[in-house]
Amino acid sequence: MSEVVRVKPDVPFVKELLANGGDTLKKCFQCATCSVVCNLSPDQKPFPRKEMIWAQWGLSERLANDPDVWLCHQCNDCSKHCPRGARPGDVLAVLRRMAILRNATPRFVARLVNEPKLLPVAFAIPVALLLILMAAHGTLRIPEGEMVYAKFIPHTIVDPLFVLTAAWAVICSAMGVKRVWEGFQRLAPAPKREYHYSLLEFITLFIVPAVVEVLKHNKFKDCVVNRARYLAHLNILWGFVLLAITTGSVATGVYLFGKETPWSLTHPVKWIGNLGAIVLIVGSVLALSNRLSRGEDAGKATYFDWLFLVVVLAAGVSGLLTEIFRLAEVRALGYPLYFIHLVFVWFLFAYLPFSKFAHLLYRTTAMVHARYAERETRKAKVISYQWPEEPSEGEGQAEAPSAA
Ligand code: SF4
Ligand code: SF4
User: Fold this and answer.
1) From the CA of 26, which ligand is nearest?
2) How far is it, in rounded angstroms, from Cα 284 to Cα 345?
3) pLDDT tens across 202-241, in order?
4) Considering every ligand atom, which ligand is closest to the CA of 22?
5) Cα(244)–Cα(314) distance, rounded to whole angstroms?
């Protein structure tokens, strides 16, 4: 006898999903075309068809703990091929955004970053922090003499502020990652094993390969419809990697070797930093132009998407201009721009676990989990069929009835 399953829909969840851009959800009639065309979906329990029906049924708990929501890379191949216009790629994007908000601790920071009306407050925090610290150091004026940014906002302000910000981001991120991992394990537990991996084995076997995959962006490359997105994401990611290497090298130089900034333009660390800024700018411009030029084909863009891309671009451009103004000795522009640059950088990192940036954390966690749970996503395959072209003249058309 078949088992009766009672579904208890979470109606407020469905309403929230529809209101946040998942309004096409109800059009889905479960044909599964989306799961077939998705190059990242595994053969067993493929996505996104099952997520579409879970969402229609209001199974919020399942969706919140579903690692497959994060294995989707939002190429929108599936939305393009969906015969009903249900836009499964966009529905998954909304589910990810809702998951970020749900996993965010403390929640009020997530509201701050994700509600447009609170944006001035979100920016006012770093501005106020910097102004108070500068006032306390007596540096609230444009310095005279050789243009050195450390005279305006000294290391004794920048370094502790950003170390604390990084610590905050790491703690909030770790709490979020722990939560999503536990959720993944509840919904799609890894097979029971006789052998328990040590931490080192876990890192080597599951985390390192997933991180390498993220750095190579192989999964993005597997999506065929939205190739531009792969290039944009790859540039943004490597921009951050190069800038992180630069920051680490500068901190080592200053604190271990007493080598004060600014360093000469010919210094290799400077090359890496400038390259990182350029790559970051190129990536964010590509991402923004992809969204603007392709419209809904690139996926529905929300405030959540725009804010992140605009702040990344602003951080990259302000960083590069800061250096140009210093070299040109344009102090009236350089010093204020340095302040603005620090505000953007603070914004990006302090709000990392609460903004679109959190994709990096949770998608990587889902990729680690997929390996650990032996749920490999399928290898790249070229979709071998195409939707038929529009019929040519006369092809497949019924003869017009005669007037007689
Ligand atoms: S989202 Fe579209 S393609 Fe996927 S199952 Fe529903 S109707 Fe079919
Ligand atoms: S958006 Fe792309 S990766 Fe995500 S489910 Fe659709 S086809 Fe797969």
Assistant:
1) 1
2) 15
3) 999 999 999 999 999 888 877 777 777 888 999 999 999 9
4) 1
5) 17
Of ligand 2's listed atoms, the one at least distance from the Cα of 73 is 3
What pTM was estimated for this model as a whole? 0.86
Domain ranges of the chain: 11-103, 107-372
Q: Which of 105-109, 258-262, 275-279 has the highest mean pLDDT?
A: 275-279
Peptide bond into 88 cis (omega under 30): no
Q: Show the ligand 1 pocket: residues with CB < 6 angstroms.
A: 28-34, 49, 52, 82, 84, 86, 88
| DSSP secondary structure code for residue 117 in this structure | G
Convert 241-254 to b/e letters by CB count within 10 Å (16 or more is b).
ebbeebbebbeebb
pLDDT digits (tens, 9 = 90+) for 144-165: 888 999 999 998 999 999 999 9
Q: Which two tokens stand for residue 301?
A: 């863009």
State which ligand 1 atom lies nearest to the alpha carbon of 84: 7
Domain with residues 11-103, CATH architecture: Orthogonal Bundle (1.10)
